[in-house]
Amino acid sequence: MNVPDEEAVPFLGTVGGGAPAGEEAAAAATDRLPSSNSAVAEMAQILRILPTVVCREISAKGCLQISFCRTSLILMKDEEPYTLHDPDRLKALAHPMRRSMLTHLAIHGPATSTTLGELLGAKTGTTSYHLRQLEKHGFIEEIPERSTGRERWWRRVPGPRDMRAPTPDQLAPADRAVLAEFHRIGMNEDRALLERFPAAYRADPDWAKASRGLARMTKAELSEFHDAYIALLLKYSHPAEDAPPDARPLYVRMFAFPADEDHPPRTGGEATDAP
Questions:
Q1: Positive or negative torsion for Cα 27, 14, 165, 119
Q2: pTM surpassing 0.70?
Q3: What is the DSSP code string of 29-81?
Q4: CA 138 from chain center: how many Å?
């Protein structure tokens, strides 16, 4: 499942076998920073002297991202694919209300549990529980400066722009049911969006685009095509804080699968724009 910038940006935390601790961890990461970027180089020197770095990010020319949490670190480009292997994090996303919350926060910005409850038709206690689950797994965070008393404000946590679901063989057999539920909920969302498309097209064709096509590709070519599609999506997708004034959040979907398994094969490779 591929999702655009507004729907797929969790904080990574740590991956792999961990990293060196404390000053050594910071030095190991900052040694790899591009020296041509003075702002990043200056930040690198600051990171070297910090014994503990807690959940902070910096970027170089919008491409280089470093995430720290308890002195374990990740160094990657924003566009580098990240596969959600952690079944617990995957399970946190396999819930329709939590996904609706994340989508709302991505499109409309910070909100409280009360606001989300009113929008989703749920009790505040229910929305608070699901928000805590999303916070626990690093997808959202509280905004302390806006929270007062019992009113807590929440926002999405920045993370990789290209987050991908694992394939079944990348998960333990016991965790594959979570992946199936993750996809089932996602497909239900996609079907609902497809139902809304004709009305959006009639309202303003310039803001509603679609295409249907039949192509012949090898498995390797399909993989290359998919990666090229993601790269093109990232190229034209602006982070909310950097978007032009006339930019709007858009739902974008792509799917492709064999056409010769349930129906007679068709010839040709035409592609057509379709409302």
A1: negative
A2: no
A3: HHTTS-TT-HHHHHHHHHHHT-S---S---EETTTEEEEEETTEEEEEETTS-
A4: 12
